[in-house]
């Protein structure tokens, strides 16, 4: 399987300085006072994994995810987040033992995606992640309101979650693409 080794953020929301988190074996718990940026970490992870809806990141417009400045610091012009995965058992179909996925956005709205520091398309990242079961609607990140949503959802909606968890979704995507060609 795929192990997240390291998280790096710069200019994303409250992370005005380059922030690095290394994840060791076992479970990692992040604690801190209210407003210290815990949820911003999960927002950042969601974002780099391809989230396109700013509202799912608790913002209204793209600029809301770029460091907005404080009394002592000027706003930044760019937000960048990287996830460094241990790919030694090749859960991601790439010939590298370490895979770095990076997303960057400028205040102008221009966006960049990178795999191992080479520019790529969003689709390249989505395809790669779907391969490893980290699809867009996957249960990789479960937000506080998600539990209620699952309990209250219609059976057809809930079915999508089970399909994702069972690894069927990628085949459905492929079928759809194949039929389009
Ligand atoms: P809680 O324990 O209440 O859930 P938390 O640790 O999850 O708190 P977050 O929601 O991650 O806290 O962080 C909120 C903080 O991030 C707020 O102080 C907010 O001002 C700051 N913040 C959000 N967006 C930006 C931005 N674009 N620029 C600067 N700071 C930001
Ligand atoms: Mg929070």
TrEMBL record:
Q: Where in the cell is it found?
A: Cytoplasm
* Residues that bind ATP: 33-40
Family, according to the entry, reads as follows: Belongs to the SMC family.
Q: Tell me, in a sentence or two, what this protein's role is.
A: Required for chromosome condensation and partitioning.
Q: How does it assemble?
A: Homodimer.
Domain remarks in the Swiss-Prot or TrEMBL record: Contains large globular domains required for ATP hydrolysis at each terminus and a third globular domain forming a flexible hinge near the middle of the molecule. These domains are separated by coiled-coil structures.
Q: What is this protein called?
A: Chromosome partition protein Smc
Annotated source species: Acetonema longum DSM 6540
Lineage here is: Bacteria, Bacillati, Bacillota, Negativicutes, Acetonemataceae
Q: Which residues of the full protein are shown?
A: 2 to 182 of 1187
